[in-house]
Amino acid sequence: MMMPLLLAAPLIGAIVNGLILRPATAKRAGVIASIAALTSFASVMVQHFAPDAGPFEWTWFTVGELTVKWSFASDPLTWMMCAVVTGIGSLIHIYSIGYMSHEHNAYRYFAYLNFFLFNMLVLITSTSLLGMFVGWEGVGLCSYLLIGYWFEDINKAKAGMKAFIVNRIGDAGFLIGIFICYQLFKTLNFAEIAKLLDTQTFDVRMLNLAAFFLFIGAMGKSAQIPLYVWLPDAMAGPTPVSALIHAATMVTAGIYLICRMNGLFLVAQDTSLFIAIIGISTALLSALIATSQRDIKKVLAYSTVSQLGLMFLALGCGAYLAAIFHVMTHAFFKALLFLGSGSVIHACEGEQDIWKMGGLKKKLPSTFLTFTIGTIAIAGIPPLAGFFSKDMILYSALTAKSYGTTFWILGLLVSFLTAFYMVRVWALTFLGEYRGDKHPHESPATMLIPLYILAFGSIVAGFLGMPEGLHLLPNYLEAFLHPVLGPLVEGHGALSEERAMAVATVSAIIACSLGFYFYSKPERSETPGKILVPFKTVFENKFWVDELYGLVIVKPFDALCAFFAKFFDPNIIDGLVLLPSKAAQGMGSLLVLLQTGIVQTYLLFFVFGLLVLFMVLLKGVVL
Amino acid sequence: MNAIYEYFFLPLSPVLALVFAGLLLIVLECVSEEGLKPLKSTVAFLGPLISLYYVFQLSFTSGLAFSDPSSLTGPVWLVEFTKIYKLDGMTLNFFWAIDVFLLLTLLFFHSFYEEWLERNELLILIEFISVGMMILVSANDLLMLFLGLELMSLPTYVIVGFRRENVKSCEAALKYFLFGSFGTVLLLLSVAILYGQFGTLKTGQLQFLLAQTSNLSNPAVLVSLGLMLAAVGFKIGMTPFQMWLPDAYEGAPTSITGFMGSAVKLASFGLAIRIFGGVFLPLAEKWMGLMSWFAVISIFVGNLCALRQKNLKRLFAYSSIAHAGFIILGVAALPKDAQSQQMIYYYLVTYGMMFLGVFAFLNLMEQNGKSLEFSNLSGLGFRNPVLGIALAIFVFSAAGIPPTAGFFAKYFILFESVKTQGVLFAVLAVISSAMGIYYYLKVIVHLYMQDASGGSKLAVQSTSTYIAILICAASLLFFSIFPGRLGVF
Amino acid sequence: MSNFSSVYWTQFIAIALIGLGMVGFLIRRNAIVVLMSIELMLNGVNLLLIEAAHRSGSADGTMLVVFIITIAAGEVAVGLGILLNLYRIKHSSDTELYKELQG
Questions:
Q1: Which chains are adjacent to chain C, needing at least 3 Cβ pairs under 8 Å?
Q2: Partner-chain contact A597 C27, CB within 8 Å
Q3: Containing H/E element for B12?
């Protein structure tokens, strides 16, 4: 009973908001949307304490041997994801009431937001690849709609399109992966695939191929190299959207996919290595870019890409638990950071350049407090949440089968940079004197309460997955997800877990100190830029990746399309289509010439036909 | 006396009604050439109406008493007479259709708008043409067949050339006449050869005698079959004997063309059914394939030539060749499936309605002084909405677009063809009829998608023509909704 | 020559008449000659029918011949009437000139 309610509530909310009622004020629309989201959250909570009878099923179609059902089930992994999605989703809905209070006709926004929630839940609760793909597409659509929400600004609309198109490329890979999976397993149901992987052996190359294509889908959705370029541009949308979709939920869909199919990825070692390499490269690249961004949201965007990279590193090393753990904690503090930045932007009346902020500590005390907590969490300072999850990732990288030490060192570097640039943002935004020309004021309660709740989560969430080595608390998370993800594999690395943790902590503290040192005082803020001038230009221009894509991919593709549209289609295709028509008309002209108008000609044909008749009839007899 | 009434008057009553109407018209013509017009037109209308009444009466007489004349005792001439006249379900169906077409054509004429209609011979001739048609479709004897055929054809030659001052009309009449007489000669030759072989002219006996297998390789019989194919083929518009058709249809006055394409074609196919579903039925394997091939070629030729036409009358003449090709496919299926007779009949009636309707419309255009080109159709759908819809119904039905009556007709015929002869001919027929859709849709395009500003509204100069159009359109709609209601008897 | 029985002679002449008629029908340009050829053909058919009736002994054939003669007469009347009309307009009875309707 809970499952249909879980899914129906946001869908009904979307329909009511978007099609039926269409309330004019953000408050009314937001209340409706928030009630829907909270209903979903409540149903998730109830489900845990009163577990369901079984999966909720409905047959969609049957083609040959393939029977596709709409089937939703809840296992520990799904439940956890649902809890995160609906919980943080509800908070963001409530936050949006305040954020969008000046918008006219905000019902569109809330309808999209609810619809997104619905699709995300479909994605998470589906029991087959196909159902997941439906939700996958749905969240992509909602992402596009919400990024381009203020579509009157052509740049924002373009950002929405960019997100959609890049996602689509990933989706193509995902589809191919689905086809290969069907080819291999003759089923798309997760449970059946898992069973098959246990009992049968398959060609490893095929498995690697399937895993590779599925990863391409994850690449697109979760913004890894080379399909990450849409995420920074997606900041054109409203900030709560960035918080919900591009920090906490949608971008984690790729990670969820790989965790769901962990049986496949465990066996596909080559692809897993590839995933790890891509993950760490992305993490490093985006961390470097984040150090020189001016826009507060862009920093957070690149930070998200970087953290996602770390999660993929974990996945590539086979540490699915670590990745999910980080998903959960990252959802808390990244959403917190985004909402906090939203509060800042709202206060500065739309200003997003951190060089024009400063001194907001006094003006926005609540925001400052929560943002600080978020910064500490992401920097990886114990005992906040980020430390434990990041540590679990780094340790699993260290103990990976191959290149463990390399991964670990690079991961450490990424953490260092993360701490550095986050402190940079924090210092430039809140410390010192106000450099802008607006009049900042604190945000309303609807925006502050979610911040506090998220801050609380950022503090305590880490305690759910503490490593056993510390003998402080049992690893609740591992116990909970054990049936789905398997045990946390203990490997052997160069260092023991405790030593690794210590190293990580120390590097985080050093990075924070550096950041604080440079950026807390205005006269020293320019120094890092001056020291690393060549690097600064590269980082600032995002390694010119977008421009590279434009040159190498977009331009030739445009030319190809122009060729097809202007030359191939009108001349060749149309020519082929018109060919029968022209042939018919030609033949018609010829035949018409036979009607000369002279009777004797007609009669000649008559007699000729008669002779033909005779010839055919008398064929066997006389002739 | 009772036997004479029962065996002579009653079965002939539909025919006799028309004969008397014609004779009465001749008398009235002698009495007064110029005057008495209302009386004359009333008599002309009464003819088919009374005939229709008798047809219905005949159909409800259960167990037609004359169907088994072997039990008849009476005067010799009566006994012999019953043998030359065949009254079965098909005959009654055809009678009914002939009467209805005649009535609709008379509605055309009723306007007396054009000067040439002032001459009353037209009414007389038309009545007698219908008499000839009725005799033709009910003939049991080759002599009667010939008589009916000639009675139908000769006045038709005359009325095609009725517009004495119009060169096209006269030329059309001459061409039709020359072809027609040639066809008659071939028919007679075929009859002569058959008679020489078997010594009888009765169709029933001939069918029985032909059933002996030795006839399949008898060259005389086969020559006779070939000649008969040519003669019948000429009348129904089968390639390669169709070349008179476009000229005759284009040259004849528009209302006459309507009559020709509907009623005369109906009777010609009645002839075809009587001959090939009757006399030459035992030789089926010889002519079935041949006829199917000619049919398919007819459809091709008709549609291909029609693509290049600009004159609307000629266009519909060529399209009638294509439609005839379809019906011939149905005739070719007769030997293996007697049910195809119903299908042929359905096609003939719906096609006749469509043809009459179109030509009534063209007549209306002519009455407004417009030449029959596509350009004059532009935007007509908006200026005259009702007429536009009616024409659209006709054209869609002709093109065979579901769910119109024309589609069902084609479907039935193709069904029969596939059932009896396999897929080949049906596929070819469909391909070539797909070509035909072009010019039908061209009409629609001109009606509804061209600029309406150029022309003026078509004034309805003659209400009866308008009514004829409406009746045709309504009946087409009726037949499309109830395809099974045809062939009542 | 006398090997041929009279039956074959009659048929031969009849076919010859029909053939001549057909050839004349197709080749001659003068419309009146064309009409004559039709008559020739019809008479050839008549001969054939009479011969067949004589052979088979039934009177059907002869009856048909009578009807054919009658109708042929009517046909000629009609044909000449049509031709006259056309002549009045075209001032020529050359069938090659009668091509208003073409294409």
A1: A, B
A2: no
A3: helix B10-31
B192-211 burial: b if 16+ Cβ within 10 Å, else e:
bbbbbbbbbbbbeebbebbe
Under an 8 A CB cutoff, do A607 and C26 touch?
A: yes
CB contact A588 to B (< 8 Å): yes
What pLDDT shows up at residue B489?
Answer: 44
Contact check, Cβ <8 Å, C18/B189: yes
- Residue A443's CB is within 10 A of a number of other CB atoms, namely 22
| CB environment B349-371: b (16+ within 10 A), e (fewer) | bbbbbbbbbbbbbbbbbbbeebe
- Closest-CA residue of A relative to C30 is A600
**How many CA atoms lie within 13 Å of A389's alpha carbon, on the beta-carbon side?**
31
The answer to whether residue C5 neighbours chain A at the CB level (below 8 Å) is no
> Which residues of C fall within a CB distance of 8 Å from A598?
95-96, 98-99
For A60, the enclosing helix (H) or strand (E) is strand A56-63
For residue A61, list its beta bridge partners. Answer: A68
Identify whether the C-beta of residue A340 lies closer than 8 Å to the C-beta of residue A451.
yes
Which has the closest alpha carbon to B436: A590, A584, A593, A583? A584
The structure tokens listed for B314 are 């000629």
Quick: pLDDT tens for A26-37: 787 888 888 888
Residues of B in CB contact (< 8 Å) with C are 142-143, 146-147, 150, 154, 157-158, 161, 164-165, 167-168, 170-175, 177-178, 181-182, 184-185, 188-189, 191-193, 195-196, 199-201, 246-247, 250-251, 308-309, 314
Q: Do B229 and A613 touch (CB under 8 A)?
A: yes
Q: Give the pair of three-digit tokens for residue B224.
A: 């006779």
Q: Are A240 and A276 in contact (CB under 8 A)?
A: no
Q: Which of residues 37-96 of C touch A (CB under 8 A)?
A: 95-96
Within 8 A of A614 by CB-CB distance, chain C residues are none
Contact B174 A599 (CB under 8 A): yes
**Residues sharing a CB contact under 8 Å with residue A268, sequence separation 6 or more, in sequence order:** A204, A207, A208, A210, A211, A212
DSSP sequence for A385-402:
HHHHHHHHHHHHHHTSSS
pLDDT at site A399 = 79
Q: Which of B178, B244, B286 minimises the CB distance to A617?
A: B286
Tell me how far apart the alpha carbons of residues A379 and A390 are, in angstroms, rounded to a whole number: 9
> How many domains are there within chain B?
1
As a whole number of angstroms, the distance between CA B246 and CA A257 comes to 72
CB A71 within 8 A of CB A59: no
Record the pTM: 0.65
Domain ranges of chain A: 1-127, 325-540, 548-617
What is the residue-wise DSSP string for A444-493? PHHHHHHHHHHHHHHHHGGGGG--GGG-SS--HHHHHHHHHH--------
Delimit the domains of chain C by residue range.
Answer: 31-91
Q: What tens-digit pLDDT sequence spans chain B (489 residues)?
A: 677 777 778 788 899 999 999 999 999 888 887 777 778 888 888 999 999 998 888 877 754 544 555 666 677 777 777 778 877 778 888 998 999 999 988 887 765 455 555 667 888 999 999 999 999 999 889 999 999 999 999 999 999 998 888 889 999 999 999 999 999 999 999 999 999 988 888 888 888 888 887 777 788 899 999 999 999 999 999 988 999 999 999 999 888 999 999 999 999 999 999 999 888 988 888 899 899 999 999 999 999 999 888 889 999 999 999 999 999 999 999 888 888 888 899 999 999 999 999 998 888 888 777 788 887 888 777 878 888 888 999 999 998 888 788 888 898 899 889 988 888 999 999 988 888 888 888 888 888 877 766 666 777 666 777 888 888 888 888 887 776 656 544
